[in-house]
Amino acid sequence: MPEAFKIGDIIEGTITELRKFGALMIFEHDATGLLHISEISDRFVYDIARYVQVGRNFNVKILEIDPNNGFMKVSLRKVTIEDRIDFKNSSKKRTVIAAEEIDFAPLQEQLEKWTDKQLENKTQEESDAQSKSR
User: Fold this and answer.
1) What are the residue boundaries of the structural domains of the chain, listed by start?
2) What class is the 10-84 domain?
């Protein structure tokens, strides 16, 4: 196992297998580890598959490293929300839109037409209801 990993590090890994007791993961340099069911969430986890899926990547925190074989015990629940989602690499970044870029003119142009049509429909419905009641 490479010396690149230390207890407390937050690393990215891929879920390779789900078991009743947790999920097996693979990391850089072919290192492997276990995400125990108790380390997935602060809440009770009945079904692991509702939280993690095979093939998905997660940022996890290293809790223990076996000195004999390098097998790691990792935690998802001890990773902050900021570290769970790497905002620097996220394609869904929030952007601020300048006020001058916001244009409601097309809506304003259509608003009167929409309002007139709704009023016309309402009037038609009322007259139909009156004619039926006679």
Assistant:
1) 10-84, 101-133
2) mainly beta
